[in-house]
Amino acid sequence: MPRVDLLTSLPRLGEDDVLAVPVGTDATLPPWLTSPAFGTLPAVPGRLLAGALADTGNTGRPGTVTNLPVAGRRPRSVVAVGIGDGTLPHLRSYVATAVRRAQTLAEHGATRLVLPLDTALAPAGADEVRAAVEAALLGGYRFRETSKPHPPRLATVAVVATDAADPAVAAAARAGEVTGHAVAWARDLVNTPSNTKDPAWLAGQAVERLAGLPHVTVTVLGPEELAAGGFGGVLAVGGGSASPPRLVIASYAPPGAGASHPVLVGKGITFDTGGISIKPNAGMREMKTDMAGGAAVLAALDAAARLELPVAVTAVVPAAENAVSGSSYRPADVVRHVGGRTTEVQNTDAEGRMVLADGLAHARLSLGATVLVDVATLTGAMKVALGTRTAGLYATTDGLAGALGTAALHAGEQVWRMPLAEEYAELLHSDVADANNAPGNPGGTTAAIFLRPFAGDLPWAHLDVAGPARAASDDAEVVKGGTGFGARTLLRWLEAGAPVDPAPATTH
Ligand code: BES
Ligand code: MN
Ligand code: ZN
């Protein structure tokens, strides 16, 4: 990951630099470009640049990028990049596009991207700088495990904003850096192939990254402890694999935190074959990403601890491989979860809810949770309903739904509230158990209704990230592969103090 520098004005540019120029809607150029202050770039006077820009036809549409010719290779390249109206989504797209182009140029010797954020419309403030730093780190993200040496990457992204000396802007840049690194970690976990990523490996990664942070403790339960604790769902799903399951519990408990204790539960299926109810070959290879919810909650906790947020939070990840073997759980098995509720297995491919049920019940009964949020690549139905950029949000209270919706908006992630429609509750009927695990359509909703009792009376929300957890192609700061979706929404919610009630109406 490149280092991020925060500067108040354009630095002197050298041969190894790439300069981005933000082009607004209708080809408007930032004021600094044509002001005398731009004299730090003698080889490219603003007038010339503006003329060259007109020639390339860049009209400022977000995500469009054109190369501008520079005399003397000082800087190496000037790239004009659309910033649209400078809204936060447009800004993210500008930054990610510039970084991606600069990473290509890094393969030919560029080492620094100089990234001015002020537009003709407004100077960048704290929100813009935070979004830009996140987009810079995430847009340039890359996961590779090849035998060849990696091509050279950018060493530095210099973010330029005239208000950069403002302490709020500097704090936002730092928050953006911590967030970007945490989400990149989540992406690494998701992108790691499942022959490396078994439950023990995933738990080990959590310990390695989190256990040394101040006020963080990480506990890992193995099969014996899971049996003693009654984790029937985790043991059933993990029972078919040669790599036994784990439960990761990472807690951040800063001194002076209030009484609220959100517990984030993330689905940690390290590979989902479907089990005995095996998946067809076509969709199966995507199932190495079936622990993306687990990665998201661990990343949110990582960032919360590094930012020293004044809120206690715990991440719980039931990790198991849903494999096919003689010891796999079967259709018609009855499984007893933490807390005693039972499930009749109708389809072993509905394994996510089996492990989440234990995680939610454990958080409520043994970890002192005051509010529960789970994140899971839970249903193909949600991907069909909302597509690949938007998560389904279910919540038992309007206040929690609203708070998470606001957090997602600030984070730049899309969520859409779905109904916990009780008219489908009867589909969960089982003759022999409290519920069956494959109640049918609408699949996303019946899965949420299955989970709900495990949260008891606590406020509970469920994010089904089956669509956005994984990307088929690059798009702004989303890079093909694991996206880390959910981590930033959870983090913003924690930054707001993990509110459960609607924000109080403003009085005058
Ligand atoms: N991990 C899958 C859901 C999924 C599918 C995520 C596609 C991302 C892309 C989950 O475990 C699953 O198999 N769900 C089943 C449930 C059904 C058997 C009730 C599904 O959605 O088909
Ligand atoms: Mn499945
Ligand atoms: Zn699954």
What does this structure look like?
By secondary structure, the chain is α/β, with parallel strands linked by helices. It has 2 domains: 3-165, 3-Layer(aba) Sandwich (Leucine Aminopeptidase, subunit E, domain 1); 181-495, Aminopeptidase (3-Layer(aba) Sandwich). The protein contains 14 helices and 20 strands. The strands form 4 sheets. Strands 7, 8, 9, 10, 11, 14, 15, 16 and 18 form a 9-stranded mixed sheet that branches. A hairpin with a 5-residue loop joins strand 12 and strand 13. The longest helix is centred in the middle third of the chain and has 25 residues, at 167-191. The protein is elongated, with a radius of gyration of 24 Å. The two termini are 46 Å apart. The model has no long low-confidence stretch (mean pLDDT 94). The structure holds ligand BES, manganese (II) ion (MN) and zinc ion. Zinc ion binds at residues 269, 272, 290, 351-352. Manganese (II) ion is lined by residues 272, 274, 349, 351. Residues 347-354 form the Cytosol aminopeptidase domain. One of its GO terms (molecular function) is metalloaminopeptidase activity. It comes from Geodermatophilus saharensis. InterPro entries: Leucine_aapep/pepB (IPR011356), Macro_dom-like (IPR043472), Peptidase_M17_C (IPR000819), Peptidase_M17_leu_NH2_pept (IPR023042), Peptidase_M17_N (IPR008283).
Structure annotation, total helices: 14
CATH architecture label name of the largest domain? 3-Layer(aba) Sandwich
Q: Please give the largest β-sheet.
A: 9 strands, mixed
The H-level CATH homologous superfamily of the largest domain, spelled out, is: Zn peptidases
What does the radius of gyration come to? 24 Å
User: Which CATH class of the largest domain applies here?
Assistant: Alpha Beta
Structural class: alpha/beta
**Beta-strand content estimate:** 15-25%
Instruction: Name the shape in a single word.
Output: elongated
Q: Level of helix content?
A: 25-40%
List each distinct ligand once.
ligand BES, manganese (II) ion, zinc ion
Distance between the termini: 46 Å
What is the number of independent domains?
A: 2
Per CATH, what is the topology of the largest domain?
A: Aminopeptidase
Mean of all residue-level pLDDT scores = 94
The counted number of beta strands is 20
Q: Which stretches are low in confidence, meaning pLDDT under 50 for 5 or more residues running?
A: none
